[in-house]
Design goal:
single chain, alpha/beta, Rossmann fold, 12% strand, globular
Length: 301
């Protein structure tokens, strides 16, 4: 059995996953594209103290497994997830996937075969004279476009085509190792509650030293452009430290960006449902005991 707990940022996914893992003998596999990085703690909201329930630390996986500044991608995640999953199952524990990176979650739940594709300069040159619309039409010949991730700019378009072209040439097939018994639970909260939580949490993290964390990463030699690519907190705080914003401007723009990110997460999860992944939505305002009872009853059938 695999249990997945997902939801947008600031909805209490980790707390619920930890409480459930404590009850059923589970271990948590993080599905967060930035929590994989060491020394990126406050800005990614690792909150490792949350992994303790009634004095017992719940084992977690895929957190702090890569150096800040290096490239971590979907291919690496699927490989690392599989290794963690098989290890947990081999020890007789229940694997639990928890996070908010929809692309990572969907890739493993659907057993996507994600190839490790290098740069194909010859193929890229063959695309150089084509317009963005022509590239989109080419991409549609390989796959259905369920979201804008692959088409938001020309660089992503070309990369998506490069991966699709490679996969088609190699005839990569999906090989399933996950159990047929999978349960996906999503936490949903009223928008005003999510907004308040996001804003409160942002100010709390700033007080906890999030700016100093970003400065330390810069001082360690990680380039500003790399930190900006990590997005949200790392983007706006790096730009603030580069004197592109005043402190108040940075906080205001970052707060808006996190709210927009939360909406995009929900858009992805709704898309997963349209793509026939059943999500059992749970009211995030319910007491923890009621949430656990709901989940355990559904898993028992």
């Amino acid at each position: 059995m695999l249990i997945t707990i997902l939801g947008p940022t600031a909805t209490g996914k980790t707390q619920l996953a930890v409480a459930l893992a404590h009850n059923i003998g589970g271990e948590i596999i993080s599905a967060d594209s930035r929590q994989v990085y060491r020394n990126m703690t406050i800005g990614t909201g690792k909150d490792l103290s949350d992994f303790t329930e009634e004095g017992i630390t719940i084992p977690y996986h895929l957190i702090d497994i890569a150096e800040a500044g290096e490239e971590y991608n979907l291919f690496r995640f699927t490989q690392d997830f599989k290794a963690a999953y098989l290890d947990i199952v081999a020890r007789g524990k229940t694997p639990m996937l928890c996070g908010g990176t929809g692309m990572y979650i969907e890739a493993v739940l659907r057993n996507y075969a994600v190839p490790d594709v290098g740069v194909d300069e010859a193929f890229r040159q063959s695309l150089a004279a084509k317009t963005d619309e022509e590239l989109k039409e080419m991409l549609l010949q390989y796959k259905s476009l369920h979201n804008d991730t692959d088409t938001e700019n020309r660089r992503r378009l070309i990369r998506a085509l490069e991966i699709s072209h490679f996969s088609a040439e190699k005839n990569i097939a999906t090989v399933s190792y996950l159990p047929t018994q999978q349960y996906i639970f999503g936490i949903q909260l009223p928008r005003d509650v999510v907004r308040d939580r996001i804003t409160h949490r942002l100010h709390a993290r700033l007080q906890e030293g999030m700016i100093a964390e970003v400065q330390a990463l810069l001082d360690a030699g990680i380039s500003p452009s790399r930190l900006i690519r990590y997005g949200l907190e790392y983007k706006f705080i790096t730009e603030y430290l580069l004197h592109q914003y005043t402190y108040d401007e940075m906080v205001r723009l970052l707060n808006i960006a996190i709210h927009q990110f939360s909406k995009r997460q929900m858009t992805w999860f709704r898309g997963m449902e349209r793509r026939n992944l059943k999500i059992h939505w749970i009211d995030g305002l319910l007491p923890m005991a009621d949430k656990l009872t709901l989940i355990e009853n559904i898993c028992r059938g």
